[in-house]
Amino acid sequence: MAYRQYMLVCGGTGCESGKSDEIYKRLIAEADAQGVKDAVQIVKTGCFGFCEKGPIVKVLPEESFYVEVKPDDAKEIIAEQAVKGREVKRLLYDKSTRKSNNKIDDIEFYQKQFRIVLRNCGVINPENIEEYIARDGYAALEKALFQMKGEDVIAELKTAGLRGRGGAGFPTWLKWDLTRKAPGDVKYIICNADEGDPGAYMDRSTIEGDPHSVLEAMALAGYAIGSNKGYVYIRAEYPLAIDRLKIAIAQAKEYGLLGDDILGSGFSFDVEIRLGAGAFVCGEETALMRSLEGNRGMPVPKPPFPAISGLWKKPTVINNVETLANIPVIITKGGAWFAKIGTEKSTGTKVFALTGKVNNSGLVEVPMGTTLREIIFDIGGGIRGGKKFKGVQTGGPSGGIIVEKDLDAPISYESLAALGSMMGSGGMIVMDEDDCVVDVSKFYMEFCVDESCGKCAPCRIGTNQMHDILDRITKGKGEEADLARLERIGKAMTKASLCMLGGSAANPTLSTIRHFREEYLAHIRDKKCLTGKCKDLVTYSIDPSKCIGCTLCAKKCPVPCIAGERKQAHVIDASRCVKCGECYAVCKFGAVVKN
Amino acid sequence: MAKMTLEQLRKLREEKKRDIERRETEGKEIRIIVGMGTCGIAAGARVAFDAILAAVERHGIGASVVLAQTGCMGLCHVEPTVEVLVPGMPDTIYGKVDAAIATKIVDRHVVARALVNEHIYDRPAADIIRN
Fold first, then answer.
1. Model confidence at A101, in pLDDT bands (50, 70, 90)?
2. Alpha carbon distance A549, A546 (integer Å)
3. Is there a contact between B129 and A146 if contact means CB atoms under 8 Å apart?
4. Cβ(A429)–Cβ(A471) under 8 Å?
5. What sign does the dihedral A515-A517-A522-A528 (CA atoms) show?
6. In chain A, which residue's Cα lies nearest the Cα of B16?
7. pTM of the model
8. Domains in chain A, start-ordered, CATH in brackets?
9. How many CA atoms lie within 13 Å of A473's alpha carbon, on the beta-carbon side?
């Protein structure tokens, strides 16, 4: 007997850390206990993208969208919805609206999204190849193997206008074409799953939710360029994605969709997983290949490009996860269909990991040409706590800050570059009025200092120098000439570094200086950090005329360094204050003053 | 599963497609909703539901039909109740639906587009909140 109801439990890392696995197991146990195990199918699926409200359980075909579900809710969900057909109202996303408003299509978070890469995330069970096949999975490979030549596959990508989603935006078809034409009988395909930007998790979620889309695309690439071997280079700190990928590879081999003589076509393709130790520089393609070969992960000068001399000096195509996940859809639906989505030069969609001070952080896929304002304010639901928007960092430590006045620019590779940032892999960190740009720049520079491989001087020395200057400014020891120094070192690094790690490391600092010079000057001249993030520049005191002596601040002070009798004005001992800001946050009378 | 041939892959895809289609709601215009409150279940709503599911399968119309369950519609005296929403046809509630009537509803109402007059109970109440 077929199932009459489906419960999809999010199995992404975010929801798993919220015990979604336990929810999944409890739902199964409850369905069994309550005698409906043959009526309701419980599926663990990939990330729904709405991580802010996880763990998520979606019930179909009723489309009930449950958020922040706990293992103990399993009993009620089964008893109410599976047995009696009633929704568990208290778990619905928006309880204030009627039932019909809780359909997934009605949630604002999803309204502006258009899912190609994430087409199967939150829909199928990523550990079951048959569900992928049912959603037109491996139809692209089938089409290519039996109806297309290698050139045709590449021509389709050219029509589609797909560009690399790892950040630089190099045309994918050209990469494939160059590798195809490169002399040599052994060629390789690499999937770059070494996602390392702070705050970015698009690729992890894609592999966790739909690993076969990546494998199918790698086989397509192999067919197109004449390669029989692919590697997925993925960081070891993504255990769930690795597990799902292993299962997917085993299943694809079992079904004859990877391995020798795929579907009797005579084409063979095999994929292996290689684990990276989690160095940011290994996301750079030449460093990645050195690491894959078993050497220390350090970039080498280009040219020669990987298309000519890549892995073990053989012609190699190296594509990022998101780029690959687009490809099966392009082959089945046609390049012309894909090219209609997005803007003229940046076609298709882009996945962003929206984090920071927004209400709905999560995974978002939008057509290119969508504005940042739409992403942050419509999809993201605006700034948390009604605070004022300050800027958004795209491209992580390689990108720049984009400010209020530029929010209406439609997103494309060109427009973001023109704004002094970059597309990057898709991390998008939103900052509000409480974030200090100097502090943020210092954070990113610290990351680059740690992650610089040290091979070339501009990056190794430049990141350290810039970090020291930024650190000095946050401690009130900066001088006005420091800004010019930062700009000068930054420019040298941008020009002279061996790879893009150093070449883009100065971007956050340079873009914040451009947009927030006054804030830097306030740190330097007035020794003030208006947001209070730079602790050395802040002092807290209590205004005796406003303090009513409620003792709350004294109770909260971790030192404690606040003294005063009940109903008497309190005093902060500045010499012992650790500047945690707790007293400022808890005072209901505005008596604590931050300077 | 041994290695597949092209034909086997296509066959598997078609089979599984029907399974997964039932999960999807996008682009489906016809909705059949079965009242599955305690009263409905006691009166045999499960049997009716399964009969509808089987009939939908038999006609191969799973891609355009959403078959959902809901709580008590308030018509406990004529349970099991089945609400059928087909574009271009009046919204209809059928009462006292057993397996045979359920099959008839799919054959006649959904496929042949003719109301099953003898079992109509009511039309759905106007949605006063939405309108």
1. very low
2. 9
3. no
4. no
5. positive
6. A134
7. 0.83
8. 5-111 (3.40.30.10), 129-339 (3.40.50.11540), 349-432 (3.10.20.600), 437-524 (1.20.1440.230), 539-594 (3.30.70.20)
9. 31
